[in-house]
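Structure ticket #2291
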Amino acid sequence: QKISFKDETERLYDVLGDLHNIFSSKDLLLEILKHSEGHITEHMVQSTIMHTAQQLRMSDDDGGVSTTLDGRSADEGTPFEARGTVDEEDFALLLYLLKRKTGEIATTRGSIKRYHHLVLDEAQELAPFELMAFAGAIHPNGNATVAGDSAQQVDASISFAGWGNVLKYLNLEDVSANELTVSYRSPGAIVDFSHHVLGEFGPPTKPIAKKMGAPVKTSVIQHRAHGSMILYDTLKDLSFREPKASIAIICSEMKTAREFYNELSELSNVRLIEDSEFSFKPGIDITNVEQIRGLEFDYVILPDVDKMNYPDLPRVRRRLHLAATRAIHQLWVLYAGEKSPLLPDS
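Resolution: structure written out below.
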């Protein structure tokens, strides 16, 4: 039997095809589900299979994806939007498969670029495959700086297993660690608030605040629309007095953020942020917790800190801590009904 070297080479480097085969195999995904300790559900498995099938599907006629006159895909905004695409979250998996199959992160067209020094921030949110991909980008004689805060790990799809594992996946051995114990961003009142929110999941010693500021304001509202009425007048006055201020309304869910945006959109410089597309200009950004990691604002408003949105769970504590510590000057917390058990007593 003749074996084409060209065909075998193409199969060797076809890691995208391998990934599609993995994500299309219901038996394999269900086997993974068994060992996921509840983090993966049958619904997730079915969604993955359907999404992968849609990515593999080409157009109905010539095998390509057509475009409109403005250069956008004709599938955009339709159920067929995913076809012919690759999810950016899968790039790390593709690099891992390439390394497993060929022994290196390289193809006949080139190899991954290596750096003598690599800096990783927010490392607590990186999955093992992503960390291993970054490890492949470190020069053999290079090193890395890794920064992060386990108290701000909010991605529900990742289980942070400690900094020792981060270093293991990065293949770093000769390391030294420095724990930052000073808060330069938030004033003392916000540091006290956020440390209380973390509870037993926070550092044993409360961070030292380098500046003082206004106390954290807490308001009880009748319902969400009532909150919008209160915010409208306050934000209108604040924007007039401090036109260069950055203000963030950080909601627990994006659905709530859209509702607040619809009711506050008549204010000047109000922006709804859904895909982390911040302009970093003065004004009012309305978004949810998942969008604001690593950012800071002059004023932060948390408008829905009730028991339903912020129950007493470890991940929820980290989410509330993350949102609160985005404030540089002042934090305002509002809730309707029963307040979150994570809030300090009045």
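Closing remark: The longest strand covers residues 327-336.
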